[in-house]
Amino acid sequence: MQVLKFGGTSVGSVESIKQVLQIIEQHRQQGNSIAVVFSAMGGVTNQLIEIGRMATTGDTDYMELVRRIEDRHFNVVKALIPVKEQGKVFAHVRGIINELEDLLRGVSLIRELTLRTHDLITSFGERLSTTVIAEALKSRGVPAQFLDARTVIKTDAQFGQAEVNYTLTNQLIQDHFAKTTDIQLVTGFIGSTEKNETTTLGRGGSDYTASIIGAALNAILIDIWTDVDGMMTADPRKVPNAFNIPTITYAEAMELSHFGAKVIYPPSLQPAFARNIPIRVLNTFNPEHEGTVVSRTAERRQYTITGISSIDDIALVNVQGSGMIGVAGVSAKLFGILATHKISVILISQASSEHSICFAIDPRGAEQVKQILDTEFATEIAHGHIDSIAIERELSVIATVGEGMRKSSGIAGKLFSVLGKNGVNIVAVAQGSSEINISVVINKNNLSKALNALHNIFFQSEARMLNLFMVGTGLIGKALLNQIHAQTDYLRQEKLLRICVVGVANTKKMLLDVKGLELDEWHERQLTDGVTTSLPAFIEKIKDYNLPNSVFIDCTSDKDIVQHYESLLDANISVVTPNKVANSGPYSEYRRLQRTALNRGVKFLYETNVGAGLPIINTVQGLMTAGDRFLKIEAILSGTLSFIFNTFRPGLSFADVVREAKEKGYTEPDPRDDLSGQDVARKILILAREAGFPLEPDDVTINNLLPKACLDAPTIPAFFEELERNNDYFENLLTQAEARGEKLRFVAAFENNKAVIELRSVGPEHPFYQLTGADNIVSFTTERYKERPLVVKGPGAGAEVTAAGVFADVVSIGSYLA
Ligand SMILES: NC(=O)c1ccc[n+]([C@@H]2O[C@H](COP(=O)([O-])OP(=O)(O)OC[C@H]3O[C@@H](n4cnc5c(N)ncnc54)[C@H](O)[C@@H]3O)[C@@H](O)[C@H]2O)c1
Ligand SMILES: N[C@@H](CCO)C(=O)O
Ligand code: NA
């Protein structure tokens, strides 16, 4: 024997009932012996409750609602039963509706609705749905029989939530099924007292009916047909990547459903659990899907946890006081009081200091609980043994559940670490010694981020997700997006990293999409779908989305954007940037950003601030971490100036060479920054700071390369005009150096707390003489690299190498989070 149960949505419309009939027929064709339990048509039970309420208040509009219920069932008859048989079925349905109307007339006369009558009214939903489905089946020649569960399920008289008398019920069910081989079509949710008064079985009603019948008949399997593909790893409305759980144990299902998984209500399946009858949760609308099997043992799984669930809204009550330490009975009294007032406790946590107990409850009851406890503990509070009772609101509980967590270490560690890295503060924690549920209380506004971050780490180990927000889609930004796009598959497969670009902005437009932008069409979409850029709005959105593993990338040279870094880091959002502005302002600001990132456990990365993609910042940080000391730094830090001095020849136009550098993507957005020495000054300042010296911008001396007129040029075009005008000046510099057999190099040097930048002419013996193209070179003299310095050399400017450096920083955040 196998029991099938179809829920409200499965029998909610003509179309879905057709589907149900087909499923039943398939079972019959396969020769399975089945019993089928039905819920009321979707929505009908709530309508009946409303109808009852209206009748009690004397509102006669309830009649219209009754008419609608009747019509829905008539429509099923019309659609699924041959015309010549319809008349008798209409009469049958009408008869049941008449009975309901008589009852409601009585209610509206006496203006009173007892729980007993309430149960009777709601029983009509299952009676009607099962009646029409039974008739439809019979009209197809299926040997089927309507079974009113009130004749076999016997309960006490606790209306609304009756207790089953199993001894009697089991006997009646067994007797009934022994008498017939027809398929029994059973009304869910209802039973009756020994005096034949109608009762209902409370929450999870029809599942309960299926479970009672299955247990009584020792069924081999119970199928719960619903409208989703079984139980999921998390609520798919909150976690888009949630997926089906193929097998789950009773205990796990119990833990998960306690935390809001609405698919089944496991307590109602208790009779089946007790007899070790497996339960399958299946989708009427996707019958091919394997669904979820709930049974005593689950198959070995790929994942350490089985599911994540949450309760969106809870309040935490904290009972605290020095008088509680070592005093037995406080908790007994506390929970006694809660029990007396029928207050359901969701979670309890007590630290071993015994100084406080906190527990979570439904926030709707919080105020009442506070009043009750304030009164009941008035004496203890007056004597100062207990402080007043504190309530915290706007909280959620998240639980990770799974048998795999039992006796397995590192899961709590992973859980706390991922929440920590995402800036999710943990307000309270509870783990039962069964070890199959770890629950944490967090702020409600972090719920979605926390759920997704946990789901990602526990279930999507095939790919960690990074969510990127990028400002600046110029030379570097564009190159970066292209590189990310080209590398997406590789990162996913080989580095288990999924990169999702959620937002892009330039000076004109910004575009955000939580689901991620398509990188091959981002530019077009940005132009068509984007809105006018507001940087504060962009930043607010990033914080609002509150996505796990968020990274902000600043690919501008803007001075205002850097003002936002601190607040971003503070919100646990990592920052990656080639923009040097933030790190080359006052030392205190540089320091503050470092600190904020450190305190928040997020990353602030800027390898491309110096030498583009060359590993210069990382090298300095590595030496520092290992305890080396810097004595001297000598460097050529401008790709632009390297290129210019390696390209300029007498006879060429200096201005044209500068233009060429700009075209090649070496210069700053404003090339005056390069030629004034400003860009190099920033870089040597940043290097000195990284090397442990708290330099201020004023500590860097720039011995100017340019004639004053060039320096003073008010615009970029005016600057180029001045360069043309001063061509002789540059030719002179060059010929003088060449006459000595030397080359021009714009060198930055740091020693004894001072940085100097100047144009030098170096001979062939000098290590900087050989430099070609737009190369940079940095020579570090340290305690450990004293005899011969450590040298990093290579292309230090250009879109591809710079974007690659930014990209490497981004990817390193991915590894850090993993
Ligand atoms: N070119 C290189 O070799 C190199 C090397 C290392 C670092 N960098 C740095 O990379 C950064 C970007 O350089 P680029 O050449 O790509 O510049 P770019 O001028 O080509 O692009 C700048 C982008 O930033 C946007 N932008 C500027 N201000 C903005 C604001 N307030 N709000 C929104 N968007 C804004 C612009 O619309 C544009 O899309 C600079 O900080 C530069 O110093 C460049
Ligand atoms: N404009 C810079 C880019 C690298 O920061 C240079 O020429 O070196
Ligand atoms: Na670098």
Short description:
The protein is an alpha/beta fold. The protein has 4 domains: 226 residues, 3-Layer(aba) Sandwich (Carbamate kinase), CATH 3.40.1160; 153 residues, VC0802-like, CATH 3.30.2130.10; 117 residues, 3-Layer(aba) Sandwich (Rossmann fold), CATH 3.40.50.720; 181 residues, Dihydrodipicolinate Reductase, domain 2, CATH 3.30.360.10. Helices cover 42% and strands 20% of the residues.
Architecture overview:
This protein is α/β, with parallel strands linked by helices and 818 residues long. The protein has four domains: 2-227, Acetylglutamate kinase-like (Carbamate kinase); 307-459, VC0802-like, CATH 3.30.2130; 464-580, NAD(P)-binding Rossmann-like Domain (Rossmann fold, 3-Layer(aba) Sandwich), CATH 3.40.50.720; 617-797, Dihydrodipicolinate Reductase, domain 2. Bound molecules: nicotinamide-adenine-dinucleotide, L-homoserine and sodium ion.
Q: What keyword list fits this structure?
A:
818 residues, alpha/beta, Carbamate kinase, VC0802-like, Rossmann fold, 4 domains, eight-stranded mixed β-sheet, seven-stranded mixed β-sheet, 29 strands, elongated, binds nicotinamide-adenine-dinucleotide, binds L-homoserine, binds sodium ion, Asp_kinase, EC 2.7.2.4
Provide the fold topology:
Layout: E1 2-6, H1 14-29, E2 34-38, H2 44-57, H3 62-80, H4 83-110, H5 115-139, E3 144-147, H6 166-178, E4 183-187, E5 190-192, E6 198-200, H7 205-216, E7 221-226, E8 247-249, H8 250-258, H9 270-274, E9 279-283, E10 292-295, E11 307-320, H10 330-340, E12 347-350, E13 356-361, H11 366-376, H12 378-382, E14 390-401, H13 411-421, E15 426-431, E16 437-443, H14 447-459, E17 464-471, H15 475-494, E18 497-505, E19 509-512, H16 522-529, E20 531-532, H17 535-545, E21 550-554, H18 565-570, E22 574-576, H19 587-600, E23 604-605, H20 617-625, E24 630-636, H21 639-647, H22 654-663, H23 672-675, H24 678-690, E25 700-702, H25 708-712, H26 716-725, H27 727-739, E26 743-751, E27 754-762, E28 775-782, E29 790-795, H28 799-817
Parallel strand pairs: 1-2, 1-7, 2-4, 3-4, 7-9, 8-10, 17-18, 17-21, 21-22, 22-23, 25-27
Antiparallel strand pairs: 5-6, 9-10, 11-13, 11-14, 12-13, 14-16, 15-16, 18-19, 19-20, 24-26, 24-28, 26-27, 28-29
Helix pairs in contact: 2-3, 2-4, 2-5, 3-4, 3-5, 4-5, 6-7, 13-14, 15-28, 21-22, 22-26
The protein binds nicotinamide-adenine-dinucleotide, L-homoserine and sodium ion.
The site of sodium ion (NA) has 10 residues, from loops.
InterPro entries: AceGlu_kinase-like_sf (IPR036393), ACT-like_dom_sf (IPR045865), ACT_Aspartokinase (IPR054352), ACT_dom (IPR002912), AK-HD (IPR049638), Asp/Glu/Uridylate_kinase (IPR001048), Asp/hSer_DH_NAD-bd (IPR005106), Asp_kinase (IPR001341)
GO biological process, one term: threonine biosynthetic process
Protein name: Bifunctional aspartate kinase/homoserine dehydrogenase I
